[in-house]
Amino acid sequence: MDVFEAIEGRRSVRSFKPDQIDEKDLEKILDAGRLSPSAGNCQPWEFVVIRDKTSKQKLVLAALGQSFVAEAPVVVVVCANIHRSSNRYGRRGAELYCIQDTAAAIQNMLLAAYALGYGTCWVGAFDEEAVARAIKAPPSIRPVGIIPIGKPAEKPRATPRLPLSKIVRENQF
Hints:
Layout: H1 3-9, H2 23-34, E1 45-50, H3 53-62, H4 68-71, E2 74-81, H5 82-115, E3 119-120, H6 128-134, E4 141-150, H7 164-167
Antiparallel strand pairs: 1-2, 2-4, 3-4
Helix pairs in contact: 1-5, 2-5, 3-6
C-alpha cells in the first residue's frame, strides 16, 4: 500500500474484533511512531502499550466514557516527555514542540496500522490527569493521545473535507 492510499483510506474505527494483534505488527506500528520527525531530533515521545482489561477500563473512564477504547485488544497511550523538548527549547519546547512531535508520531502510527490491516482511532478527548494516573506517568510525562488498535469490526465512511480552494493561500493570508 502506498502512502497516499493509506492517507485516503484510513478512518477512525470505534468497533473492534477480539482478534489479537501480531507482535511483529505492533512493533512495526510503534516503530513508525519512533521514526517520526521531531524538533531538534529531541524525540519526546513515550509509548505505553496497554493490554490489561482493568487498565483499559481506567482509560475508558478517563476518556469520558468512550467505551470502544476497551474493545481494542491493544491500546497505546502516546505521551510527550516534556523534558526532552524543554531541555533544548525551553518553554516553547515544553508547550508546543513536544505536542507537535507526538502528534506526528500518532499520525505515523495510525497510517502504519491501517497499512497493516488494523483499525485505530485518535482519541484526544480525555481527562489528562486521569490518564496520567492510569498509566502511572511521572510529572514530566504528558499524555497526548490514546490509540485503540485492532482488527476493525466496521468500515466507516469517509467524512467530508474542505476543498483545497477554501484552505490554501498563496504568499499571505
